[in-house]
Amino acid sequence: MIPKEVWRQVRRIQIRTGRAVTGLLAGAYRSAFKGRGMEFEDVREYQPGDEVRTIDWNVTARMNSPFVKNFREERELSVMLIVDVSSSGQYGSSGRKKRELIAELGALLALSAVRGGDKVGLVLFTDRVELYLPPKKGTTHTLRLIRELLAYEPKGSGTDLKGALTFLARVKRRRGVSFLISDFIAPGAAKEVALIARRHDLTALCVSDPREFDFPDVGLVQIRDLETGLTRMIDTSREEVRARLKGRALSRIEGTKALMDRVGAAFVHLRTDEDLLPVLHRAFRSKERRA
């Protein structure tokens, strides 16, 4: 039985994000992603000017004459949201936790996809794959997806990015659109990211909190790693300590962006103290221009 408060949250986030989808994001998503997928249709004889890359060598060998593959634009895309629900998402210093920002972000993407006529699916992961919803259309499916983003209670606390991407590669072999949403506080998964980027139109959405870059001077304070439970004492009155904390956060963001640039994936950085809508809109427009 789903608690009434969860359903109220689902409805609130559907109304709030639904307005955004029908407004500012209405054309941006469709422009950025529609028409990117191509599906094999048939073969035809080679014509001067055809791309050499499209030659079907097997048919060419059988027919003793060059033939090329003919493709048509896919009418719909299969969109996957791969979402980190590890314990570090429970952190938030600006009135909104990272997990809440992730839920709203996922809802925006899901509603944009469905509004654009695409199917959308969901993978929730921590140090294991927690939940998999195969891509589907429809309001009922989308509401369930938003509900899981908001209210799913993870069994794990850590982050296994490699495992989540390996799972995605196994269940989604056909090309589609994938959004990887995480704070990327996890060991690197360069090999797995590169594999997904080759198979899918991949966008990494990196979520952070402003306190990760600007820790206040509050003297001696005990901090706890939300994923491991380990605690330690730090002296925030020392400028070099605050600088080191900031440097680690910046290094994580910059390292993630560098990896995505290297494999040809898009990268978007979102903070809990920002309005995600204009950031997402700019990202879609940027993707459209690059395409």
Question: Could you describe the 3D structure shown?
Answer:
By secondary structure, the chain is α/β, with parallel strands linked by helices. It has two domains: 4-33 and 76-290, Rossmann fold; 38-73, no CATH class. It is built from nine helices and ten strands. The chain has a six-stranded mixed β-sheet with strand order 5-4-3-6-7-10, with helices on both faces. It has a two-stranded antiparallel sheet with strand order 1-2. A hairpin with a 3-residue loop joins strand 4 and strand 5 (129-136). Helix 1 (4-22) packs across helix 5, helix 4 (98-115) packs antiparallel against helix 5 (139-151) and helix 7 packs parallel to helix 8 (239-263).
Keywords for this structure?
291 residues, 6-stranded mixed beta sheet, 2 domains, single chain, 10 strands, 9 helices, elongated, alpha/beta, two-stranded antiparallel ribbon, 23% strand, Rossmann fold
Provide a short characterization of the protein structure.
The strands form 3 sheets. Strands 5-4-3-6-7-10 form a 6-stranded mixed beta sheet, sandwiched between helices. The protein has a two-stranded antiparallel ribbon with strand order 1-2. Strands 8-9 form a two-stranded antiparallel sheet. The longest helix is centred in the last third of the chain and has 25 residues, at 239-263.
- Spatially, the strands of the biggest sheet line up as 5-4-3-6-7-10
Measured as a percent range, the helix fraction is 40-55%
Strand residues, percent: 15-25%
Number of alpha- plus pi-helical segments: 9
Uncertain runs are none
CATH architecture of the largest domain: 3-Layer(aba) Sandwich
Number of domains: 2
Full CATH superfamily name of the largest domain:
von Willebrand factor, type A domain
Mean pLDDT: 85
